[in-house]
Amino acid sequence: MELFGKRWPEDFTNRFFIGQHTVDHDQNDTIPDILKGIQPREIVRQLADIGCDTLYFYMSCHLGNCYYPTKVKHGRVHSGIGDLDVFGEAADECVKRQIAMVAVFEFMHLHYWRDWEKAPEGWKHYTYGKDGKRRAKGLCWNTGYGDFVLAQVKEVFSQYPLAGLYVDMLDYPGLELCPGCARRFREEMGEDPPQHDVDRDSPLYKEYLAWTFRENARFLNQVRGTVREHAPGAIVIQNYHAFYCKDLYELRDATDFVTQDPTSGFGYRTTARPVHTAACFRALSERKLPFDILLDNVVGGMGLLQMIPRDPYLGLCATVLAHGGYPVPDSMWDHHGRLNPAALGVAKEAYRHVERTRPWVGKWKSLKAAGVYLSQESKYFYGNTSDDQWDVAAKYMGEFHGALLMTQEEHVLRDVLTRNQLPRLSDYAVIYLPNAVCLSDVELEAFRNYVREGGTLVSSYRTSLADEWGRPRGNFGLADLFGVDGTGEKIEPYGALQMKVEPSERFPFLAWENPMVTLNQAALLVTAREGAQVTAQLHDRYRPSPNPGNLTTMLNAFVREEPSGPAIVESRCGKGRSIYFAGKVFSAYLYKGSPEVRKLAARWLVADEVSRAPVRLEGAPGSVEMTAYERPQEGRWIVHLVNFQSIPGRCHFDPLQGPDGRPDVAVPLTEHVIPVHDLVLKARTGGRALKGVTLQPSGEALQVEERDGVVAIRVPKVHIHEVVVLEFAEAWESEPERFTNERLVPLVRCPRA
Q: How confident is the model at residue 657 (pLDDT cuts 50, 70, 90)?
């Protein structure tokens, strides 16, 4: 729709989120004068002064406190605002200053958690562990609480000039047993829902989990309908929680664009979170509006990371922009309702960068080399024996994020792929299946056809050992491609395992690199089929002696000379080939990996495929990420280079758990981003005449040298974010990205056999 003479939300790119989680006097009696003297119009004025054009503002925070005078029964107005309509004044001032205001509603109402008996009868639901003990409590939208939420949404959107609604904490985090949910489950599935002691591998539990995705989307669509009834052009979005409590398909379709608070993380807590989230959101945003990412806990957040300085924060913003999205700075307000001035200062710098690079940011067709497949079913149905869904998801997501990290640091042009992108697998020279355990027959056939027609498939560990419901296949579903058969056994590292690779022209180890490549993750014991090539062998270490009186050596002292089994197997099928890693090489690199692991999986073994990429980057450290797009109607290629080369300060200990469960994960404080110099882009232009190459946004003309159909472009310096624009003499026609919204693998009924 049109808003203030611009397209909403496409032309509103300078967004700001205020964290308003403010206790009331009866919720904490030790803090005096809560929200005393709050000036909502002054807040909006401050944001307007730094260039903000979109404000995310709470109508009701996670404590259940409203910032407007709600009249809905059971609604709770924060007593600190008195008769002041904080939300309404902010909305009115936003209109005067032509700022789009998005209401934020959080499904928590923590004030009931303290006084649980005061929660209205019938609103409550519980989460139980396998032991039958209650693990959590909450309020369920399939009760009167859902009616309450819809009533407050209607109340706000019928009174205030709002551009959208941001929904947070609308989750099914575990096994829910409220009467409303049970009734809904019976209506749709024709049987009772599972109880707390259900086998997590049972068909009933898996059907329940898939049902929660549909149910979540069903209520979100109700909210969306209520908003649209009173504000036809308003958008409805939801915090995607980094894929841990959300699905990739039902909820994607129930929102206008995808957004997320990356505080939720994906197994480790560093500034890499938005980097990988941006790549995933680019895939999920196809056929939708551009995504944004709330860089929460980064600018003026809740204390753990404090204030990230300007340079690294701009690096995060640049990464989001380079993937076609928009960053959302934020600030918690203090107990008087005042914003952090340092947060405003950093946000202003972020907006300046957005404005400078806006002409070169968009949802365009990517220039392709590699794809990394994201398997939702592997995330939820693989090893699903824990009460903690975050833990369950991490068992798969470590491999996925490790593959993203490898390809990023090797500067491989890569897209994240989901089932929506299956129709275009042939566009990629190489596709990674990082431990994609649960694959349907539809997916298996798509990958078979991809390889038969000339593609290269790189897979790891348990990929294709189960169907889409997580039911074991007995052998790899893609055994014919992998050239291996499973034995049903695996080997856990004693300190580590080793992959023995023979140095050669193909594997040019440096003098200080060890061809006994360290793998500190588990590996499967497999047998190679006739005709397959075993490229590397897996070697175990000597374990502690079972004999009394024998001493134990150091963990890394003695490696067994006899191999335990194949570590890397290559095979050919049709016109293409497969590369199979028996171990979890991608998560090994993510957490504790060596450069040799990265070079094997993302450089040496796929050297031919990478060499055919439309654009390659040389001379850059792993801190530089490259994304590239084509704009055929303008005759342009656009290449983003984002640098995060830093000098870490002294490490502090992060009190949050790390990937291995220990609470002492060191997280370096990054203050400066160090420029990199003399990079070379090599572009294969396909014979198109090149008119010129510039560095944007400065407009500097770059040196170009063409030889054998390859254009070499020297980039003298990249500090944080530079855009290289290749201008061709003529425009050209290009087919749109192939994409499907069809439910290729409908997850409703899990076969009982």
A: very low
385: pLDDT strictly greater than 80: no
Q: State the Rg of the chain over Cα.
A: 27
pLDDT at 210 exceeding the cut of 70: yes
What pLDDT, on a 0 to 100 scale, did the predictor assign at position 409? 94
What angle do the packed helices 144-157 and 203-230 form, to 10 degrees? 30
Position 655 pLDDT exceeds 60: no
The full set of domain ranges for the chain reads 2-130+138-176+212-364, 368-613, 616-728
User: Which is higher by pLDDT, 307 or 396?
Assistant: 396
Q: Which residue has the tokens 């591998």?
A: 201
Token pair, residue 441, equals 């027959």
Question: How large is the average pLDDT for residues 232-259?
Answer: 83
Cβ burial of 166 (10 Å; 0-12, 13-18, 19+) is: buried
- The pLDDT of residue 416 is 96
The pLDDT > 90 percentage for the chain reads 67
Burial of 129 (0-12, 13-18, 19+ CB in 10 A): middle
Superfamily of domain 2-130+138-176+212-364: Glycosidases (3.20.20.80)
Evaluate the CA torsion angle 462, 466, 472, 475 in order and state its sign: negative
**Percentage of the chain exceeding pLDDT 70:** 89
| DSSP 8-state secondary structure symbol assigned to residue 544 | P
Mean pLDDT computed over 92-117? 92
The DSSP code for 542 is P
Question: What is the rounded CA–CA span in Å between residue 494 and residue 540?
Answer: 8
Q: For residues 142 and 349, what is the distance between their CA atoms, to the nearest angstrom?
A: 44
Chain centroid to CA 605: 27
**246 — phi, psi (to 5°)?**
-135, 160
Residue 510 CB coordination number (10 Å): 10
Tokens of 199: 């086998």
Asked, as a colleague might, if the bond just before 697 is cis with ω within 30 of 0, I would say: yes
For 616-728, the fitting CATH number among 2.60.40.1180, 3.40.50.10490, 3.30.310.260, 2.40.10.220 is 2.60.40.1180
- Provide the CATH topology of domain 368-613: Rossmann fold (3.40.50)
Q: How far apart are CA 312 and CA 324, in angstroms?
A: 19
